[in-house]
Amino acid sequence: MADTVRISAGELVADAILEAIEDGRRVVVTTTMLGEEHEVTLRYDGAVYYCDTPTRLHRHESEREMRRCIRKNGYVKDPAEQE
Length: 83
Description:
Elements lengths: L4 E4 L5 H9 L4 E7 L2 E9 L4 E4 L4 E4 L2 H10 L11
Parallel strand pairs: 1-2
Antiparallel strand pairs: 2-3, 3-4, 4-5
């Protein structure tokens, strides 16, 4: 298994996050939810993208859906980035 990438929310652009998970790496994002720090794990199994939060496992069938999720949740550097 490839190395895990650990970042803070807003540290990388969406393309860099997607490239890492599509290469088989897990991206662990440290973010603040409800005033507390949490880790969210982003991954891809070759068919489905996953966003594993402390409260829910999001499944996305396409790169576009995953891009929308990570932008919406503030995990990326530039929320105005084009899809």
